[in-house]
Amino acid sequence: MTDTIHAYPMRKSDGCPFDPPKELGELRQQGPITKVRLWDGTTPWLVTRFAEQRELLRDPRLSADSTHPDFPRLVPIAPESTGARLSFIGMDDPEHARLRRMVTAQFAIKRIEQMRPAVQKIVDDLIDELLAGPRTVDLVDAFALPVPSRVICDLLGVPYADHGFFQDNSKVLIRRSVTPQERDEARLRLVEYLDRLIDEKIKALQDDLLSQLVERIEAGELTRGEAAQMGVLMLIAGHETTANMIALGTFALLEHPEELARLRDTDDPELIASAVNELLRYLNITHTGRIRMVLEDIEIAGEVLRAGDGVILANDIGNRDPDAFPDPDRLDLGREARHHVAFGFGVHQCLGQPLARLELQVVYGTLYRRIPTLRLAVAPEEIPLKHDGFVYGVYELPVTWQSSPSAP
Amino acid sequence: MSFKLTVDQDKCCGAGQCVLLAPEVFDQREQDGIVVLLDETPDDALHAAVGEAASVCPAAAITVEEG
């Protein structure tokens, strides 16, 4: 029995940079729930079907408290950092809700929608810079990272001039192949950096999210340590994930020219919005699942998940479940995909999703229209892929285009 | 066929999915982004949108009662 248990996470197959590992699809066909083996020999449950994933992610008997000694770990951690976690994403209610609700207003749908002109300007300015520069660039460095980094810097009140520092440390933090010490050091550098920024805001409040957290500190509702952790979480989540969706999404579209043409030739906001949801579903960059631990026994799909068991909800394969998405392996920008689980599900569902959607709508709705001849500058097999990331994407995306592109 | 809606503000995690789907029926509180119900008995034309809002609500904070 034990030797049939697959190791997790699996690697995507060569030549299929946009698809979940084929073993995940095979496991899903065998049933909604199975066991996998992690690097440390533990064997958590792996949930592969969409319906069971949604049911479990909404179940309060599953814990996200990553400081628990039995919590499943995808990578080794340093013993002294067992208690480390990135703010409320590693907590359960009521602690989770207390902290999350301090920042939810900023990410409310209507508040985010007001940012659209500012995001459009950032995107247009960066495309102007692209068009004025050399005609072959790495789209990750020149566009995909700067767009969300500038947006989240403005929102949080972080100086964009520090982007080299926070991008470099974020990259270490979300890579599986670094040592526990390297990851810890990167996390601590970011926490110290945010703490220094909080210090500056204490001296002079500004119109930004970090200043709002400072007001909470001064009201006695939040500790300075909690505020710094929250700042790190929002800074990382705010740029890394969206940057990967921009670059990997562009790679996927360049490999699906008919779908790319649909975006390039439209100004229909509904098609652009549905394209964003479909690319989120299809690419599912959070490709190492949502991780939880069972608090009380749960019966589901003929199995009993016991208290203390680990559970991995593999949302990448859930988003390819034919019962939820007909012809799931086809990229179809016009399909109805808004029920996808790329942002997770349950109370931990991505807080920043309205901002991510806005940024992706502006980017996908602008980039290919303004640079219609955009193409890869190397063969697709040469694009370096983030197989070892907690967040999937491309390390580089060399692109080129013909001259005389259209005006904004 | 009318229906009645309730929302649970304690469960709500402020993801805003309902506001995207049915802005005539749901809004978010200014101070913390938590759901506000604008219309407990929305028009039948909104039935599908409201049902989908309940289905995609990550926190299961929306209940639709038929009747």
How many H/I helices of chain B?
A: 2
Helix share bin of chain A = 40-55%
Q: What is the overall silhouette of chain B?
A: globular
- Work out the number of β strands of chain B: 4
Structural class of chain B: alpha+beta
Question: Whole-Å distance between the termini of chain B?
Answer: 7 Å
| Named CATH topology of chain A | Cytochrome p450
By DSSP (H or I, 4+ residues per run), the number of helices of chain A equals 15
Largest β-sheet summary of chain A? 6 strands, mixed
Largest sheet of chain B: 2 strands, antiparallel
* Quaternary organization: heterodimer
| Largest interface, counted by CB within 8 Å of the partner chain's CB | A-B, 27 and 23 residues
CATH-defined architecture of chain A: Orthogonal Bundle
Concise synopsis of the structure shown:
Chain A contains 15 helices and 11 strands. With 408 residues, chain A is an alpha+beta fold.
What does this structure look like?
By secondary structure, chain A is α+β, with helices and mostly antiparallel strands. A six-stranded mixed sheet of chain A has the order 1-2-3-9-6-4, sandwiched between helices. Chain A has a three-stranded antiparallel sheet with strand order 5-11-10. The longest helix of chain A is centred in the middle third of the chain and has 31 residues, at 224-254. Chain A has helices spanning 22-30, 50-57, 95-100, 109-113, 116-132, 139-144, 146-156, 163-173, 180-203, 209-218, 224-254, 257-264, 269-283, 315-318, 353-370, and strands at 6-7, 33-37, 45-47, 62-63, 136-138, 290-294, 298-300, 303-305, 310-313, 375-376, 398-400. Chain A has one domain: Cytochrome p450, CATH 1.10.630. The N and C termini of chain A lie far apart (60 Å). Chain A is 45% helix and 9% strand. In chain A, 45% of the residues are buried. Chain B contains two helices and four strands. Helices cover 22% and strands 24% of the residues of chain B. Chain B is globular, with a radius of gyration of 11 Å. With 67 residues, chain B is an alpha+beta fold. The model of chain B has no long low-confidence stretch (mean pLDDT 93). Chain B has helices at residues 17-21, 47-56; strands at 3-7, 26-28, 35-37, 62-66. Chain B has one domain: Alpha-Beta Plaits (2-Layer Sandwich). The longest helix of chain B has 10 residues, at 47-56. In chain B, the strands form two sheets. A two-stranded antiparallel sheet of chain B has the order 1-4. In chain B, strands 2-3 form a two-stranded antiparallel sheet. Classes of the chains: A alpha+beta (408), B alpha+beta (67). At the A-B interface, α4 of A face α1 and α2 of B.
